[in-house]
Structures are given as C-alpha cells and as structure tokens.
Amino acid sequence: MRNIRLLIEYEGTQYAGWQWQKNQKTIQETLSKAVERVVQEPVKMYGSSRTDSGVHALGQVANFKTTSAIPPEQLIRAINFYLPHDITVKDAADVMESFHARYDAQSKIYRYTLLNDWIRTSLNRNFCHVCGLLLNTDKMLDAAQYLIGTHDFTSFTTRALQERNRIRTIKRLEIAKEGKYILFTVEADGFLYNMVRTMVGTLIEVGRGKIMTENVRDILAARNRNLAGPTAPAKGLCLIEVKY
C-alpha cells in the first residue's frame, strides 16, 4: 500500500469549502472522485486544512493511500485531466505510510488580501476584499502584536462552543502594503473556525479608528466574540503553505 502526498492549488469561489458535505460541491469530494478515476479504487482523502466556503489555496496538502503503481509524475497529469480548471494538483510524491496531511502539520500560513481603494477591481474580484475607508496601517501593526504568541482565541472564532481547545500559537502576523493592497500574513500551529478572518476584521476596525490599538489586548483576554470586529469576507483568504 502506497501513501501519496499531493500539493494542491484551487480557487474556492464555487465550492463549499474543503470538507465533504451533503448536497454541496466541495474540494475534497471533487479531488477524491478525480483520484478514484485514475487509480480505479476507492480512496480516503485527508487534507491539511479545512478551508471554508469561498477560501482559496496555493499550498493545500492532502494524502491518500492506494495500491496503484502509477508513478507520481503520471499521477499529476492523470488527476489534473479529470479535475476542473479551478483545482490543480501541483505535485505528488510517495511518503511514509504513517504520514498524515493534517496531524503531521507543524504550522500553516494564510494570507488575507485587502484592496484599500474606493474603486472595485474586476480582474481580482474573487481574491480580495475591497475596503474604501482610509486605514492607518501603523496602528494595525501595533494592534497585531497583541495577537502574536500563545493565547486563548475564543474572541476570534464564531464556533467557540464547538471547539474544546481554543488555545493556539501565532508565530507571526505581518501586515504589508503593496500599492493599494494590504496583505495580512499569519502563521500559526493551527486556526479556529473563522479565526484569521475575524482577526483581519478586527484589525480593519483598528485601522479605521473604531477600535483602539490597546483594546485588542482586552478583546483577546475577554474571550468574548461579541467584542471583536466583524468576520472579513472569505474571498480574501488563501492558504499559502503548510509546514511539516
């Protein structure tokens, strides 16, 4: 039995997220069906991160086990043949039988793209959130420092009661301007449901002066979702890399 690791890129616009769901099109289901057509047997696909509806990925990692002898290079071409153009397998490799895409991950890197302009974009409309308000990125950077480290992120998840352990470690949270775009890059050992999008929504409120910089520390300590900012739209979020 072989264990195959896949590196996958996808646009999540037309999908109800990664995880298989009843009566909804998902990345996991679409990918699994394509793989099964190639290897000619049922497979169980494991993903490194359960990206939400509308969220994209440049570096999603998945693995499945198979008795097929098809070489990795040929697997890439064959699987992509059966996939729609908004999902692409970028790499395939044989790995140890014990490898698990989700449980072996050491950290994940997400990037949120914000277009800070009052004029919308057409070409990039599915990959960024447009905010026409004047934002103070220096204040946003200062506020972001309170979120770095190991904390209880109950205030930054919309499903606190469904998460037994709400402790996560943010290794870095960077905010950079590229022209009219503001890029939020977050690396952590794991993320709660809507955690990145809620942090971004809160930092936007800091940037526009609705939340004071030092109040982010208090919001974090309060463990109360109602005190944080709104959840930023899914289309601005992209899984960049998973580290092992």
From TrEMBL:
Highest rank taxon of the organism: Bacteria
One Gene Ontology MF term: RNA binding
Record field: catalytic activity: uridine(38/39/40) in tRNA = pseudouridine(38/39/40) in tRNA
Keywords assigned: Isomerase, tRNA processing
Pfam family, one: PseudoU_synth_1
Entry EC number(s): 5.4.99.12
GO BP: any one term: tRNA pseudouridine synthesis
PANTHER family in the cross-refs: PSEUDOURIDYLATE SYNTHASE, TRNA PSEUDOURIDINE SYNTHASE-LIKE 1
Protein name (record): tRNA pseudouridine synthase A
Organism: Candidatus Brocadia sapporoensis
Gene: truA
